[in-house]
């Protein structure tokens, strides 16, 4: 789905930017130009960033926890 019509940025591109190393909305905005024109997409862009960062952090926590289990 398109998040930023002015720059033609999709939610998938925002997620990919985070998977590739962006760690904040500010990083995503600098990388993709989202919300740099009219700004109407800022709330939705921030929501996608927040949700994706939470997913990434949850996945990292799950991986860290799975390494702690020892087979009996």
Automatic annotation (TrEMBL):
Which cofactor does the UniProt annotation name?
[2Fe-2S] cluster
Q: Which Gene3D superfamilies match?
A: BFD-like [2Fe-2S]-binding domain
Residues annotated as domain BFD-like [2Fe-2S]-binding: 2-49
Which stretch is the leader sequence? none
Looking at the keywords, is Acetylation present? no
Q: What CDD domains does UniProt report for this protein, alphabetically?
A: Fer2_BFD
Please give the superkingdom of this protein's source. Answer: Bacteria
> Keywords, A to Z?
2Fe-2S, Electron transport, Iron, Iron-sulfur, Metal-binding, Transport
Gene Ontology MF term list: 2 iron, 2 sulfur cluster binding; metal ion binding
Q: Which family does it belong to?
A: Belongs to the Bfd family.
What is this protein's name?
Answer: Bacterioferritin-associated ferredoxin
* Species lineage: Bacteria, Pseudomonadati, Pseudomonadota, Gammaproteobacteria, Pseudomonadales
């Amino acid at each position: 789905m398109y998040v930023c019509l002015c720059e033609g940025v999709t939610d998938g591109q925002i997620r990919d930017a985070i998977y590739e190393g962006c760690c904040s909305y500010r990083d995503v905005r600098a990388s993709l130009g989202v919300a740099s024109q009219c700004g109407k997409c800022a709330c939705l862009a921030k929501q996608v960033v927040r949700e994706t960062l939470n997913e990434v952090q949850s996945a990292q926590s799950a991986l860290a926890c799975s390494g702690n289990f020892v087979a009996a």
